[in-house]
Amino acid sequence: MRLFAGWLYALGLVATLGGVIVWVSNIPDIPDEDDLVWKRGYLIGILLDYDYDGLHIVNMRLRGEETLYTYHSIYPSYVSVRDRIGIYRDVEVLVDETAETAGAETVRMWGVIEHDPYDEGISVSFDEIRAEVTQTERSWQRVALVVLAAGLSAILAGFAIRRAVPYVPKDPTA
Helix, strand or coil for residue 96? Predict the structure, then answer.
C-alpha cells in the first residue's frame, strides 16, 4: 500500500508540473489597443502556411513592404479571410507599432479591413480577435487548473496513505 502511495506522489508531481506548464504557456499575449496602428496598403500576395506549432496562418504582403502580416487560425472569421479576401485589393491591417518599428520579418495582425469595390469586404475588429483569443487561452487555463487540482489531490492522497499505513520493517533474517 505504501508503494501505491509512492506512485501517487510521482503521478501527482507529474500532473502538477504539467498543469503549471499548460497554465503558463497559455497566458493571453494581447497588446494594448493603444499600441496598435492601422496600416493601409495594396495587397499583392497571400501565402497559406503553418506556424511553428502547427497553427494555420495566412501571410499577406502589401505593395512596397518587405514585412509579412500574419492572420492566425485561432482568430475569428479565419476561413473568410483565408478563402474570400481578394488579392490586388486595398486593405487595412491593425498591427503592433513596436513590432513594426523593430523591423520584424513577420508581424501579427490584430484587425483587418478589406476595401472591395465590388462586394462587401471582410472586416475583423480588434475586439473580436481579443475576445476569441482570450476565450481560447482561458479555456486552456481551465484545463490546466483541473490537471493541477488532480495532481495536488494525488499528492495529498499519497500523503494520507503513507500516514494511515504504518511502516513495519521486515526482519532480514526471516
Answer: strand
**Contact of 62 with 74, CB cutoff 8 Å:** no
Q: Find out whether 36 and 111 touch, Cβ atoms under 8 Å.
A: yes
Separation between Cα atoms, residue 51 and residue 129, nearest integer Å:
18
Q: CA–CA separation, 115 vs 123, rounded Å? A: 9
Q: Against a cut of 0.85, is the pTM above it?
A: no
100 pLDDT band, cuts 50/70/90, is low
Integer Cα distance of 65 and 70 in angstroms? 14
pLDDT for position 18: 96
Cell reading at 134: 482570450
pLDDT of residue 119 exceeding 90, the answer is no
User: Which residues pair with residue 143 across a beta bridge?
Assistant: none
Strand 106-115 and strand 68-72: the pairing is parallel
Q: pLDDT band for position 153 (50/70/90)?
A: very high
What's at 16, amino acid-wise? Answer: T
Q: What single-letter DSSP state applies at residue 34?
A: G
